[in-house]
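Worked example

This section walks through a single chain of length 352. The input is the sequence exactly as stored; nothing has been trimmed or padded.
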Amino acid sequence: MQGNKPSKKKVPFAVNKELNIYLQAYNRNIDLPLQYEDMLRFTTSIPLLDVEENDTFWQTVFYNESDTQELYPAMTRIYALLKTDGDTRVMEHLTVDRIDYCTFGNSKPFRVRIINRLNDNYDHFYVKRADASRVYGLELEYLLSPNSIRYLVDGETLIEEHVAGIPGDDFMKNNLEDSNFNKIRIAKEFIKFNERCFVRLLGDMRSYNFVVDITPDIEGSQFRIRAIDFDQQSYEGWKSFYMPQYFKENNPIVFLGIEHMNPATVTQYQMEERSLIAVRAKAERTRLNDLFEVMVMDQISFPKKVEGLKNDLSQHHKNPIFMKCKNMGEIILTNIQLLLKKEFKQSILNLE
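Given that input, the structure is written out below as tokens.
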């Protein structure tokens, strides 16, 4: 399998006025009690290790007393805004248990662990620098995937909820030796996930950029793969970057599909997923139209990458319509329009 390498560093794009207006119209843009820059005021940090004492590449950070008194209430307020639409009655039971910082990757996120003092239950959310690519990715995830996701934007600050699940790389190490019935279900979900990413052009879905949610069922388990990193929404310039099947990190789960799926079954699952995406797009037609009115006027990549991707997709779909596209927003819109017209060419699950 051929691996793909993204650009050395994803270039961030500012959230422009038009996108902010869209976010405000759909209750995503609100005044937050703190900004990303405030989180950088930590004084010390220590490496965060996992249960096996391995480095997680996160640092647990600590603030001086005055900053703690200012920031911690602001963080519980943000959690209330994110989870209960600002109902402050929940705040009296909440406290900040830990704050972690990751310098690995583009977003350099802070992960805030919130704990409920009444029952010791905990949850997380993330504080990141706002980037238009990431915002478009989150919004398309909300509109076109089977997964609801909460996020908030204020200026250059982005708040994201935590997506629960087993990290994809851990899942492949520990959960693939399962019954044949569950292996088939895992392979089926990866095919559907691959198709979702390709339709809405979400890139770089290597195993550490998605999680697997497992739900016990009457017979076996149900599996749902969920993206957790939206930095690479429509940024790079070649089609295979938007197909998780082509990343070598995903080989174990791809091999599972090769072993348990024949071409007719793969096509069936791809068509099922495209039909579900079409149903969601039609149900959210007004909001999706509003989003693309902004997106087709925005710059979230560079001309060379736009040219590369529209050439790739023209060849893939055997349709020259992509050559008329001037930017990434128009390319995604065209991809989805082909889906709605039932002229979308599926990806092929192979190891080439």
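What to look for: The longest strand covers residues 55-62.
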